[in-house]
């Protein structure tokens, strides 16, 4: 496949990949996108994306294209018989080995690598402390990306995302819909980034002439879980949320406040949704929780 001065490859055409592709296509870029499923090829073509059949853990079906910019934003599908290490670490390693060398490689990671910071602010200079398997897998993948960049002379950039949400996916809304008790304390902090702003940040990192090798991506306005669920329940007409602070498998145990100063200053990102509440008017009445187990 031939290269283009504004050619992009999105590995993982999911929740973040779709709005990112739309942004690049609107700008006139040539966009390739991977999918594991043949039945999605037509859907990608209808979006203006050139589909590439690619499974990060299976034998090669197609060659990956030679492009200027690659974004790796593969999600973890809990319904598949795969571990998170196989997808995030082994899948990334295999992809890097098969990938024609781009100018820039962007890896979408998670702010979960910071662990619990006791409610303190974290940024790109804060030491990491991954406290669960998912966070450790993200950290291990980041190390692979850094090694790849230094050994190949590629601009390798890690984008640590806060919780990505949007009109079709809202964190934990199923608990509210079902009237169930929400595991965890209402005082735990939640750090978020709207999916359109997440795509805007990736785009900015792809187009920047100079940039750092690490950016934290969040709206910079953490809220407590109680505040988030109360606002969501009020918007959707559900009963007020109830919490179980003693739940052992509770989400939101990584208590931290995620700053976005470098993202705003170096990449010039202006957020369309600077706070969680700014997005509530866009919510449909039917939502899907991306983190529902």
Overview of the molecule:
The chain is an alpha/beta fold and 293 residues long. It has a domain at 7-166 and 194-220 and 256-271: Rossmann fold. It is 30% helix and 19% strand. The protein contains eight helices and 15 strands. The protein has helices spanning 17-26, 41-46, 84-98, 133-152, 173-178, 195-207, 225-236, 261-267; strands spanning 7-11, 30-35, 50-53, 69-72, 104-110, 121-122, 155-161, 163-165, 182-183, 189-190, 192-194, 214-217, 223-224, 243-244, 257-258. The strands form five sheets. The protein has a seven-stranded parallel β-sheet, sandwiched between helices. A two-stranded parallel ribbon has the order 6-15. Strands 8-11 form a two-stranded parallel sheet. Helix 3 links the parallel strand 4 and strand 5 (104-110). It is globular. Residues 10-208 form the NAD-dependent epimerase/dehydratase domain.
